[in-house]
Amino acid sequence: MDNDYFSIDAILAENQKIQCTFKVDIPDMGHLAGGSDRDIKSLTKAPIPIWLAYIMLFSDWADFTIPSPFGTRVRNALKAEPRSVKLSNLVGAGGLWYGFGKMVMDILSEEQANGISEMLTKAFKGRLLEVIDQAQHFAALGPAGGGGPSTDTAQSFREGLDGTERELFALAQESAKRMKRWHEGNDKARR
Amino acid sequence: MALPQSLRTSVTPLELELIASEQLVEIVPLITMEKTAFISGAYGPLRPPAKCRIPLWMATNLKLKKKCHIVPPEWLSVDFLQERLTRETSRPEFSKLPFRFAEIAKVILDVASDDVQNADKIKSLLKDLREARQAKSRDGLQKLDHSELSLPNLCSMEINEIRPFFIQSMGILTQLVREPSAE
Amino acid sequence: MDVDDDDFFTNLDRPGGAANNNTFQERLRRASRDDDGAEIPDAPPFMFEEEEETPLQQLIRHWMNERHSPDILPNEGELLAGLLDHIRSQSETVQLLRTDPSSSEEEHFRIVLVQTEVERVKFIVRSYLRTRLFKIEKFARYIMTNPQVQQQLSESEVEHARRFARLTDQHFYHSVLQSLPETQQTLDDQPPFVPSMVTEPDKGRAVFVLARQDCPPVRLPDGTALDMRKGHISLTLYSVVEQLVARGEAELV
To answer: Where is the GINS subunit domain (chain A) (predicted)?
Structure first.
């Protein structure tokens, strides 16, 4: 979620599409709406990638609806139990639910943005501990492990991690492994 | 690349060990040596069996050649660590330990366990202490926000272990939280 | 022994403090102290150094600050020059002692120890410089467009930034930009809805900070103030503690 011009992650995240409704006729741009029409007519609906949507919304050529991964249904599920929601299902494998949410949040009005922000923050906090616990659990197992008490719920949670959480998982796992190596090593020759 | 990827956001345990090894430790020398000027200060003279204070790296070096005994610091003892462990498990806050205790304990136990009374018991106490403190870091993670998290008495090696994901998580929260335009 | 005593760690090596006797370890502790060397650094072991930092301790602090800070910090040229001189003179001494055929076994140990320390210090110097080099390359364009930042760098560091920026610019030009319309050939655009093309340090990144003394209060992102007493440890944004670190009142750990 870094804010760097050359960040590949940021560029990929902006490929996420949002449902836009055109407010004006746009000639010769029918291909954007995916159909065979030459022009885009006012009130046409089309999924538009975020990077393109910015300028359309800013210029007031279109409106958009909050994408379903951040809709009421998901919100209610997260409220009930943040760890039971499979974020990866909402944005596709390797997708960035938080990154996408952040972009949506940034183009919304103040009040709606606050709502999304609250949902994202609560979801992140509500899931973080489980992400780290599992990462450390796996690091402790070592290469031989794999079985252990990895219950169905735990596995299901891991499969449901979004790209951001996956990265955190990897960071925590790597760090725990590094500490384990240090604690267990005794390389007298090195000293 | 000027700096490998793995060193860009973190520090390795061995680098922390290197830093901790600058600290002074008492030894009983088994060789004589005149007082000598080093970059970090002047040390010596070494005159067996009089005790002398030298940096830990130097003590390690001599110890591996069987030219000194290392006098473990008072906190590296069963009594002290047992007391800290009791405290650690009965109170919510991190108990106070020397900032680089993990590194120093590891180095001394690695090279001079014969100079440490009850070395095995100490190792197991250190492990219990580590686990009790890890549970508290975990509580800290629960309190993490986008602004600040105070972690009094957290130690150097413990910081290093949690650093990558604490920093990353705070970065994510910074992105997600909307400040009521506090400019 | 009162472990609640705040001075406990500073009194670690009071002779004969502990209870159990007659063990080898206890005899070690009780052995007489050679007080001959009046200049033996008398810092309490394993505690914050109360006295003036040695140049090496300063370098270690700046090295760690540099490693943890998202920004490139002011170059510690003078400190570095002093330490490099010291490395040189220690190496020369070693050379001299080595060529002396009458060197005793005792001399041999001294030589090895002095050499070991030289290698340790060289490692730290190298790592410090490499960390800066990494940032200089990452922020080369930012450095070259910002005279204020250039003042914090050594001459050779600025030169490196200049050459590195030119090199990447030329590479981008030859491999891609020359085939684009002229209006799209620039590398310092600030287009709307897109981050600036010039990568800047992210001062909003979190760092672990340790107060080296009681610090004046700093303002946190949530609007509250943070009052750090000596020894306090916090995780907060670099921008919050940037000034404290610059003044040496706090360090990154």
So the answer is: 73-183
